[in-house]
Amino acid sequence: MEETKHGGMASVIAALFANILVAISKFIGYALSGSTAMLNESIHSIVDCGNQILLLVGDKQAKQASSKQHPFGQARAKYFYSTIVAMMLFFAGGALGIMEAVEKLSEEGHGVENAGIVIGILIFGMIVESFSLRVAFKEIAELNRQKLPLFKFLRESRHSEILIIFAEDTCAVVGLVLALLGTVLSLVTGNAFYDAFSGLLIGIMLCLAALFLAREFYSLLIGESVTEEDLTIISSAFDREEVKHLIDIKTIHLSATDILVTAKIEINSPYVVDGSAIINSIEKDIRSKIPDYTIYIYIETDTYMENYER
């Protein structure tokens, strides 16, 4: 349960240290080579460092206790900061990289110096980023208790930070491979076009990642219901002889591990007098069935009507 409560943050910290180390090496490589791909990768790593810092700030904010102004706490702060990461940093980094690559493509005197050093730094970066990606995969395995296919899990997961880090680390590894290919081709052919073109591809990849993440976090910010499997589990708590009808049920994720459940039920007439005890029993049953969540439950009794509108 502990990894679910704090899922994603170990990968954030691992990614931060990895990106600080890689960013320093990439800037050294750019200073020695003038490589456009290396510059784009340097920008990418600096952007990634900013990403992780924002995610850590969001995690701290999300842990704020409930108050009169925020009665359910501030758990959705993670979604807000994740959205900033997706749009401001991913997109800004990608757009800046595209602009630099386009400029280099039209620059006749552009060349790559000290290509051997660049290749060495890129390989070093791939090793470090692969370690960070491995940590992300490990956390995904811990969170993916239903053993869903990877991309289905990422679409259904309410853990915004693990989605950010997975996308970021994947882009980092792919970006380094593109930069390495561009550098090697420029070295072999003597044509710096391949270096600039690989930088352009890296920038486009970051922009596409930003758009994908923004779409996911838009849905989370608005408020997503629990998964179909969790809804089935919650609904099963109402399947008892005391409950005549489950008139309506609504759920919403306040964060990856905080859920609001509201329901309207009709109690069978022999048990009406025990309404409060029945509701308390249902609430206890729901919490016992999905113990990994903090659940806010509000259940109202009513009379079932055929034409009831939700």
Question: Can you tag this structure with a few keywords?
Answer:
310 residues; Alpha-Beta Plaits; 3-stranded mixed β-sheet; 10 helices; 3 strands; elongated; mainly alpha; Alpha-lytic protease prodomain-like
Describe the structure.
The chain contains ten helices and three strands. It is mostly helical and about 300 residues long. It has two domains: about 220 residues, Alpha-lytic protease prodomain-like (Up-down Bundle), CATH 1.20.1510.10; about 70 residues, Cation efflux protein, cytoplasmic domain (Alpha-Beta Plaits, 2-Layer Sandwich). It has a three-stranded mixed beta sheet with strand order 1-2-3, covered by helices on one side. Strand 2, helix 10 and strand 3 form a beta-alpha-beta unit. The longest helix is centred in the middle third of the chain and has 30 residues. Its main location: membrane. Keywords: Membrane, Transmembrane, Transmembrane helix, Transport.
Percent helix among the residues? 55-70%
User: Which structural class best describes the helix and strand composition?
Assistant: mainly alpha
At CATH's second level, what is the architecture of the largest domain?
Up-down Bundle
Sequence of secondary-structure elements: HHHHHHHHHEEHE
Task: Estimate nothing, just give the exact number of structural domains.
Answer: 2
What is the name of the CATH superfamily of the largest domain? Cation efflux protein transmembrane domain
What value does the Rg take, in angstroms?
Answer: 25 Å
Strand tally, please?
A: 3
Average pLDDT: 83
Shape: elongated
Q: How many separate helices?
A: 10
> What is the terminal separation in angstroms?
34 Å
